[in-house]
Design goal:
By secondary structure, this protein is of the alpha+beta class. Bound molecules: biotin. Biotin binds next to α5, β5, β8 and β9.
């Protein structure tokens, strides 16, 4: 384990630790400890130094813990989980999983990170990914004998499943903005980015990236270009590791079900969570925008908009929030 990781594991409790004790626990000098501490603001962590008491983080952290994740769920024995890798700092978990897929990894290979340097959002945006505070998760799924027809609905499956997990932890006011924005009281709580490679009608794989704001530091939140919220603003009793484990388990089960039965088992939940249905919305498309009344989705997951020209279907685009709440 790197010295910085060891140090963060000690400081994660939010208590004071003297430079001397930190040094002896890591087997390094006090000045080496100080050098590492100086780098923590770079990853968005605020360290307080108080004479005679030592150092502490301004807020405790619950770092990702492989054992806790495996044991706080039935993941350890799940045949659907082929591998779990946890990174401290990575460019993007999606990018890594696409690489793992090319290297031959199996379905159910899951990657988590404490921080992403270049977290990818939809439509070329950056996904703000500060250290130790949110959930950044990607996993691989292979369709060997040809994907189900409605593969385009898979991102809705990921969204609905994530929203349901959040609801099951007791949060209310959760909804989906087509195609896969997870909102709570109209503010963004999570997002999904699917990346695809292969043949639609033959062997292919999909990397599903899920980002959920768990406890977004205020300074990092300033960089987000839309209203946002996080889980800890609505409940302080949810463990980050337990939440992550539950989410992974639910997603793997959902994809397994989708592979066998398609989107149909998820439709009722989608309809219940769909925030657009019945609303007049603005859909940004490549060459402008379209205003219409959202009429739900078709079996391919495309958005149905009732416009002046009748009901039109859209398989991509960004629904504007302006008229929604
Ligand atoms: C969106 O813009 O709503 C989609 C955001 C998806 C973010 C997640 S975080 C884990 C995974 N790795 C990435 O680089 N992006 C996705």
């Amino acid at each position: 384990m790197h010295h910085r990781t060891q140090l963060l594991r000690i400081l994660a409790d939010g208590q004071f630790h003297s430079g001397e004790v930190l040094g002896s626990e890591l087997g390094i000098s006090r000045s080496a400890v100080w050098k590492i501490l100086k780098t923590l603001p770079e990853i968005g962590l605020d360290v307080q130094a108080v004479p005679r008491r030592g150092y502490r983080l301004s807020a405790p952290l619950e770092l990702l813990d492989r054992e806790k994740i495996l044991t706080s769920s039935s993941l350890a024995s799940s045949p659907l989980l082929s591998e779990l890798e946890i990174h401290e700092n990575i460019d993007s978990t999606n990018r890594l999983m696409m690489q793992r897929a090319r290297e031959g990894s199996n379905s159910g290979h899951v990657c988590l990170a404490e921080q992403q340097q270049e977290g990818k959002g939809r439509r070329g945006r950056q996904w703000i990914s500060p250290f130790g505070s949110n959930v950044y998760l990607s996993f691989l799924w292979r369709f060997t004998e040809g994907a189900p027809d409605a593969l385009s609905t898979l991102s809705l499956v990921a969204g609905v499943t994530t929203a349901r997990v959040i609801e099951n932890f007791g949060l209310t006011g959760v909804g989906m903005k087509w195609p896969n924005d997870i909102l709570l009281d109209g503010r963004k709580l999570g997002g999904i980015l699917l990346e695809f490679a292969g043949e639609h009608s033959g062997p292919c794989y999909i990397v599903s990236g899920i980002g959920v704001n768990y406890s977004m530091p205020t300074e990092a939140g300033i960089e987000i270009d839309q209203p946002w919220t996080d889980i800890c603003s609505h409940s302080n009793a949810i463990s980050r590791n337990h939440f992550t484990a539950t989410l992974i388990e639910a997603l793997l089960l959902a994809y397994d079900k989708f592979q066998a039965k398609g989107f149909e088992p998820f439709m009722a939940d989608w309809q219940r969570l769909d925030l657009c249905r019945g609303q007049t919305v603005v859909l940004q498309v490549q060459d402008g925008h379209i205003i219409g009344r959202a009429e739900g989705i078709d079996e391919q997951g495309a958005l149905l908009l009732k416009t002046e020209d009748g009901v039109r279907r859209f398989s991509s685009g960004e629904v504007s929030l302006r008229t929604m709440r």
